[in-house]
């Protein structure tokens, strides 16, 4: 069993091209969730590529995702793939674009603070007397 000896933990911050797990401290839970969502997307794109082409390559999946982020409609995405040497069927291109657009974590919200609504009397009582 692994024992934690200090407050630092190993987090999966992303693989990039190195395929390594990076050492870090506790990250914001929303960042962790976004990382997990991205890794799930990479996995699904890998599965699609494997099913259609017999290629299971994480770097290729990340490259396809980056192309889809820059080319958001079918025609431009397919053109970008062809320019980079891909010979994907229209069905695969369509599936990949749909998958990436529905699963991609949304862009990080602006850093401006959220509007804080004043608490109602009921909310104040809930704070004073938690259940």
TrEMBL record:
Going by the entry's taxonomy, the superkingdom of the source organism is recorded as: Eukaryota
Domain GIPC GH2: start-end pairs: 41-98
| UniProt-listed Pfam families | GIPC1_GH2 (PF25082)
Protein name as it appears in the record: GIPC GH2 domain-containing protein
Its source organism is Micrurus spixii
Q: What taxonomic classification does the UniProt entry list for its organism? A: Eukaryota, Metazoa, Chordata, Craniata, Vertebrata
